[in-house]
Amino acid sequence: MPDVSVRNAELSERVKREKESYDTGLRRGRYNDVLSHTDRLYLDKRFRLAGELVRARSPETVLELGCKTWPQFLGRNGIVPRELTCINISQAELDEGKAMVGPGSLRPRFLVMDAHALEFPDRHFDLVFGSGILHHLDLDLALAEIRRVLKPDGLMLFSEPLDNNPVGRLVRRLTPHARTADERPLRHAELARIARDFDCTFHFEQLVTVPVGLVSRFLLENPVNPLTKAAFALDELVRVRLPFLGPYFRHVLIAGRPKP
Questions:
Q1: Who's near 115: CB < 8 A, 6+ residues apart?
Q2: Rounded to two decimals, what is the model's pTM?
């Protein structure tokens, strides 16, 4: 087992690399374009489901790890907490988040902060959420901090990529400039690790829709078309009838509450 000082040094270097990658800017245009027909129907479902889960909690104090998902998870669902804080290690990312603030009621506070060392008191937040963030972090440290700052009946809600989908993995390999050096999409072990600390529900997304979406992109302009609708319906059937295939989907929305 590595010495604590060695682990701290490795973590510091990892955080530094992540910050530099985001400050410089990732080239995600090609990646997002290739998967545009894969995501469309599931994005609508994800944001709607996130709204239902969050609204049931009626959160007053909310933390986003990251800074660009609050308009979808909260704003579009009409959820306006008393306190909303968004953190990121990259000022460039925070500036993008600030640019999303419009004339509505949501007025987040944006702070430069490392998610491995949250600068908030224990049991402060009703909700901690994020999108595409846990797989960039040291999972043990991040989960410990999320548990610490969440109220005992609080909700954690994270949308994350998975690493077992073969087509999704191929697309990632073909678009290396769209990601950082240290990010690792979640696999079975990571899902099990999260479930150790939280009573979780895993809402899996995108199985058949991944290859069908790729084909559809070359055949049809509209991402919502007969091919993607049929693939979406089949995915939902597989998700319900064959739940053991969940980790082989491309994406997951994780909703959990701290275990006692």
A1: 65, 87, 89, 133, 137, 142, 145
A2: 0.94
Angle CA 230–75–22, to nearest 5: 85
Pairwise CA distance, residues 34 & 218, whole Å:
10
Distance CA 97, CA 92 (A): 9
Tell me the CB-side half-sphere exposure of residue 61, using CA atoms within 13 A: 12
Instruction: Give me the helix-helix angle, 166-174 and 209-219, nearest 10°.
Output: 50
Q: Is the pLDDT at 210 greater than 80, yes or no?
A: yes
**For the domain bounded by 4-258, which CATH number is listed?**
3.40.50.150
Indicate the residue type of 116: H
Query: What would the pLDDT profile of 43-89 be if each residue is shown by its tens digit?
Result: 999 999 999 999 999 999 999 999 999 999 999 999 999 999 999 99
How big is the chain by its Cα radius of gyration, in Å? 18
- Are β-strands 125-131 and 109-112 bridged in parallel, bridged antiparallel, or unpaired? unpaired
Q: Has residue 219 got a pLDDT over 70?
A: yes
Q: Is the pLDDT of residue 1 over 60?
A: no
